[in-house]
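Summarise what follows for lecture notes:
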Amino acid sequence: MDTKTAYDRRWIALGVLCMSLLVVSLDNTILNVALPRLSADLHATTSQLQWIIDGYTLVFAGLLLTTGSLGDKFGRRSALSLGLLIFVIGSIASAFAPSAEFLILTRSFMGVGGALIMPATLSLLTNIFTDPTERAKAIGIWAGLSGVGVAIGPMLGGWLLEHFSWGSVFLVNVPVVAIALPAGYFLLPNSKAENSPKLDPFGAVLSIVALVSLVWAIIEAPAKGWTSPGVLAALGVGAATMAVFIWWQNTTDHPMLDIKFFKNPRFSAANVAVTLTFFAMFGSMFMLTQFMQYVLGFTPLEAGVRSVPLALVMLVVAPQSTRLVRRVGTKLVVAGGLGTVAIGLAVAATATPELGYARVLPAQLLLGLGIALAMAPATESIMGSLPREKAGVGSAMNDTTRQVGGALGVAIIGSVFSSQYAPAMASSLGGLGLPAAGLGAAKDSIGGAFSVAAQAGGNPNTIDTPIGHQIADAAREAFSHSMGRGLLVSAAIALVGALVALVFLPAHAAPVAGAVDMDEDDAVEVRSTLGIGGTEAALARQEAIDESHLEEHEHELASATAGDRPPED
């Protein structure tokens, strides 16, 4: 495919990229509603259910930096195609898994495909959309759909489970990939980094070990305890390996991730913003989905439908956030977005059985608004801080912060919740004379409490006795209270993120030479067209750059793969 053809088809190509991304973002949440069915059909233990979810996340997060670098070297379309193929093979194998152990393996295999897909979509986007205005809109659409995929996962999963077997939550990926795979071959350029950088296998191994160790510790800590030997050992290995990774990246002449990027406040602060945005989204969805099912009594499908408002707000607001950036600057939009997220979490923290969904809905609307405002401009800041030939690594860094942020959100909010729930249940049920096993089950989880409540009157299926209702009501109150504490901690962390964005993100960043966002002479024309000023120092630097590059840039705006090799067929 030639450059002109790729440029002419850029908006159709964006649809292919978004479709490819959708299967990955859906997979993060669609499986959660199927866990009870998996437990019954595959006789999966609690630990096995956890690894069915976590195996995918660990492989995904651990490989992202490596796969981004591979895409830069061998071709981003090739990386995307290989990722889709691996993902659909893993999906089909998962749908027909005969045992929990087999499903853990196939889910981990899907994580390899996901790690190839996500960085390839964003790096291809930044190389197809070279006009800064169009690219900002495209990233807004990309960011909005990635969040929507996460939000509608429970609804789609609930609907599929009402009509089909649990394998359907995996088979839903097959028709999407069947369209995206051939469409990508014909509509996407196979752009590569200009200088064909050498691979960094030692750095790749270090990054995988560090990220897998840290993410494993984050995920396991709520169940095992932050001071358990296994978690402390994993944290120690992760921290030590990360230190060696940083040293190696500063030492080698072909680093996978140039640590000097983090000296740019725009890049560092934007990564913090993305991490905390997904911290809030994954953590709040983890709690609110359970709250709606256990406390308010909704079915998985009913709870999923009631998550749609959050998804719709994200879908509408994310593409429009770039317009707001032009008016008030990245700093205020991202900081305002994270501040809105904090308010939404604080509202959600006040949800009770009596207030019901009437308190959950405004919290969801605020969360969707804040996430959408912060996510797209922060992503644009990450990609706009890097040279174009490092688009794959920049995209992988962006995706890694998403996964790590999501894991942190679930782990930290879950830890706070667990630390509050068990004592609250012990206090409420201490005088009922329950056997030790029953009290222990009620303290472990709200699902266990409902089982104890049903059995209290001799009926294993329904809660139909006064003591049963007392146990169930105590569990609902304890869950609401404990969820509120966890969400308040999350709100405080989101506020810290807002302060980081307010202090370190530039209002209107002046582009750097070779950056993904625009050529130096394009910046002046775009500033004039959009009325974007920036600080006086930034403008002075921009004028100096313009004078030194005036004769080098007399071509038309936005060559479709500027700084890259010509696309291959």
Summary: Residues 520-552 form one domain. The chain has four domains: 1-194, 200-255, 271-438+476-509, 520-552.
